[in-house]
Specification:
InterPro entries (chain A): ABC_Gly_betaine_transp_sub-bd, ABC_transp_perm/SBD, MetI-like, MetI-like_sf
Membrane topology (chain A): Multi-pass membrane protein
Protein name (chain A): ABC transporter permease
Number of strands of chain A: 10
Oligomer: heterodimer
Structural class of chain A: alpha/beta
Largest sheet of chain B: 6 strands, mixed
Radius of gyration of chain A: 28 Å
Number of helices of chain A: 22
GO molecular function, one term (chain A): transmembrane transporter activity
Strand content of chain A: 5-15%
Distance between the termini of chain A: 33 Å
CATH class of the largest domain in chain A: Mainly Alpha
CATH architecture of the largest domain in chain A: Orthogonal Bundle
Subcellular location (chain A): Cell membrane
Number of strands of chain B: 8
Radius of gyration of chain B: 20 Å
């Protein structure tokens, strides 16, 4: 409990940017929805089209909608120039505003349609122009319903804004995503409490404004407005005092190893006198674009990932050639500087229980070939469809007796219980160390390498001081050290560490 | 609707009578352009109403209708003052009180909200709102249709009294021939979109105006005869 409270107090800046993001999105939603609703109330075609579009948007999962704005904004750079941000605040704002549209629009249109026709006839009868009618009659009578729509939209938006984390916009989703990945439930609970609490407070204040308008109590809606404005002002002020240009932003993808390495890099830079900020839990697909566009400054990526996704290559020239080609390609095409390799790989590999490996005398894939027809091989659900598996089969002429699919957690259990003799594993997975598994050698280099590389954005690529501060990390982290650190974060119960603690432990071990 | 030609003199009180669907309300709403004619013209003080700026025209014509249509978010006073406010003038509080007194409401009612009022009080406010602009013409569409008979009678007489006192020109649509005969100087009868009779009340009672008009007059007359016959006859239970 104390831990959660402590985390909550440390969420100030995430809280502020969450409020600013959600408020901007709702504001933009209102700016678009209200004129549209007025237009819709005067034309059934517009009404059908607008409500249909807003409903359609609502059917897209929020996470997908956020991710979709990345390619959309990227293609819009052709029009608005290269400075158009494709990650962070702008796409989050646009996606959330679209999401906020429906409840506001629907309530406004419904309110207009349900206005008393007698009152409208009287408005015409006393000689109101259509603008006067809107201002004096339609708007004030619709206001409580419109306010109710804004209230619904606000609660949705505050909740959905936690997903902005995945496209590099700091929000209360940061602790939630980090906690989910590292199984740190205190972080998840703190993030949820903060965002749900914010939603409840905003709902209460907007409800007060709604009631005040409906009952024509000026003090009530006035007080509500003042409270909302004060909260927003405080958030803007708090956010304004945030990062300056000298801050180095370190990204991490959504798994433990990435959180640990981000902390390790951050600590190293802080030691050299830099101020750092973290963008945790970015979607794997956006990290490379984020570093290439200098939205973030430092990331850790893997050779195999860049090779397939960015260079769009399917061949395997071998570990060294692949790395050299990537360094060259990044320099020429994106301006990203690959500072070097950290020293370990997070690749696909085959693992066996050590007693079984000793019994059968298998230490490499070559040894496996002879006995494989009598063995059962376990893999994650996609492994036997992946190019890695096809490459291994072809390179060694491997024929296994049986293949079985397991979810990653059960894969290790199957190995332990003997339901599988060997499994596909990730080389830096902490469970390899914990279960004392033997990773089979790959002498023919059939499995592509996934060397962890330290990437620097074009913004800081030329900064030799930063490079010097990070140089001690290059080649310093063995796969054994990484496994141990990963396991410390992933494990349950006693000895479980936060990514930050694991990073400190790792730093001590590699002598930094 | 077609073939209607008629002139209404300044200062007269005209009732427009007919059964449901005869077109009387539609004809009335052509005066303040709530309905626009597909052919023909309506002249008001010599000008075609469709060529006069609409908002300005409607402020010169007081409009009272069955639905009343008080603005629920305005006080009674604000409702009454709306016409002058649209023209950019603030109606003095004393004038609002005067208008309330005119329709026999307490002056302190100005600060009340419409939903605190009874139906009769609301329509009195509706009349006061229509009079606030000092209109040249007052048009009323079934103004008392939703009121109970006692309120209805009292308010009808009040309107007639105001018509005299303020020198108004008034056109009232009603389906109740008795009301028309009692209040108006002149009764126009409509049927299926055409004007079928144009007579003074006295002439109608004498049997002028044709079959349709006489059919409408027959209803209240017969009711009155039956009521007086009932008075003269011995009581059915023998106690009278």
């Amino acid at each position: 409990m104390n831990e959660i409270v402590e985390i909550l107090f440390g969420l100030g800046d995430k809280f502020a940017s969450h409020i600013v993001l959600a408020a901007s999105a709702i504001g933009l939603g209102i700016l678009v929805a209200l004129p549209l609703a007025i237009w819709a109330s005067r034309s059934p075609t517009v009404s059908r089209f607008a409500l249909g579009f807003a409903s359609l948007v609502q059917t897209i999962p929020a996470l997908a909608l956020l991710a979709l704005f990345f390619p959309i904004l990227l293609s819009l750079r052709a029009v608005f120039g290269e400075d158009l941000p494709t990650l962070g605040f702008l796409p989050a704002l646009l996606a959330l505003a679209l999401y906020a549209l429906l409840p506001i629009l629907r309530n406004a249109v419904t309110a207009q349609a349900n206005l008393d026709p007698q009152v409208l006839e009287a408005a015409d009868g006393v000689g109101m122009t259509s603008l006067q009618k809107l201002r004096l009659v339609e708007a004030p009578l619709s206001a409580p319903f419109v306010m109710a729509g804004i209230r619904t939209a606000s609660v949705w938006t505050i909740g959905a804004a936690t997903l902005a984390t995945t496209i590099g916009q700091p929000s209360l989703g940061d602790p939630i995503f980090a906690g989910l990945q590292t199984q740190n439930w205190a972080l998840v609970v703190a993030g949820c409490i903060a965002s749900a609490g914010l939603a409840l407070v905003v709902d209460g204040l907007l409800g007060m404004i709604e009631n005040g308008i409906a009952n024509r109590r000026k003090w009530q809606w006035g007080a509500g407005f003042v409270a909302v404005a004060l909260g927003l002002g405080a958030a803007l002020f708090a956010q304004g005092g945030g990062e300056d240009d000298d801050t180095i932003v370190i990204a991490s993808k959504q798994f433990s190893e990435q959180y640990i390495l981000a902390q390790l890099i951050g600590a190293q830079l802080e030691k050299a006198g830099y101020s750092v900020a973290y963008r945790d839990g970015l979607g794997s697909a956006v990290v490379h674009s984020a570093v290439a566009s200098s939205n973030i400054d430092i990331s850790v990526d893997y050779t195999g990932t860049i090779w397939t996704n960015e260079l769009e290559r399917t061949d395997n020239p071998g570990r060294e050639a692949m790395y050299e080609t990537i360094v060259e390609w990044e320099r020429e095409n994106t301006g990203v500087r690959v500072l070097g390799r950290l020293g370990f790989e997070n690749a696909y590999a085959f693992a066996m229980r050590s007693d079984r490996s000793a019994e059968l005398g298998i230490t490499s894939l070559e040894d496996l070939v002879a006995v494989a027809p009598q063995l059962t091989l376990g893999g994650d659900p996609e492994f036997f469809e992946r190019p890695e598996w096809i490459a291994v089969r072809e390179a060694y002429g491997l024929r296994v007796g049986k293949t079985r699919n397991f979810s990653p957690t059960f894969m290790y259990n199957a190995l332990r219980s003997g339901e599988a003799d060997a499994i596909s594993a990730y080389t830096s997975d902490g469970r390899i160390a914990a279960d004392k598994l033997v990773v089979l050698e790959d002498p023919r280099e059939a499995l592509p390498s996934y060397d962890a590389m330290l990437m620097m954005s074009p913004r800081i690529a030329g900064d030799e001081d930063i490079a010097a501060a990070l140089k001690p990390l290059i080649g310093a982290i063995s796969v054994a050290a990484m496994r141990e650190a990963n396991y410390a974060v992933d494990r349950e119960g006693e000895g479980k560490l936060t990514p930050k603690e694991a990073a400190q432990e790792l730093a001590r071990k590699i002598g930094l | 609707m077609g073939g209607i030609t008629c002139e209404i003199a300044k200062g007269s009180f005209v009732a427009l009578v007919g059964s449901s669907g005869s077109g009387k309300s539609t004809l009335l709403k052509m005066v303040n352009t709530l309905v626009e004619p597909t052919a023909g013209r309506v002249l008001f003080a010599g000008d075609d109403v469709t060529t006069v700026p609409q908002a300005k025209l409607r402020r010169r014509v007081g409009y009272v209708f069955q639905g009343i249509g008080l603005f629920p978010h305005f006080t009674v006073g604000e409702n009454i003052a709306i016409g002058p406010r649209l023209a950019g003038e603030a109606l003095a509080e004393s004038r609002i009180e005067e208008l309330l007194t005119l329709v026999e409401l307490e002056p302190d009612m100005a600060s009340r909200m419409p939903d605190e009022l009874s139906g009769g009080q609301r329509q009195r406010v509706g009349v006061a709102r229509a009079l606030a602009n000092d209109p040249e013409l007052l048009i009323m569409d079934e103004p008392f249709g939703a009121l109970d008979p006692i309120t209805r009678d009292a308010l009808g007489n009040k309107v007639r009294e105001l018509h005299e006192a303020l020198g108004l020109t008034t056109i009232m649509v009603t389906h109740d021939m008795a009301e028309a005969l009692l209040l108006a100087d002149r009764v126009l009868v409509m049927d299926s979109g055409a004007l079928v009779a144009d007579e003074a009340p006295r002439a109608l009672l004498k049997g002028e105006g044709g079959d349709i008009a006489q059919g409408l007059v027959a209803v209240p007359r017969e009711q009155a005869e039956r009521l007086s016959a009932m008075e003269d006859a011995p009581a059915k239970d023998g106690r009278a």
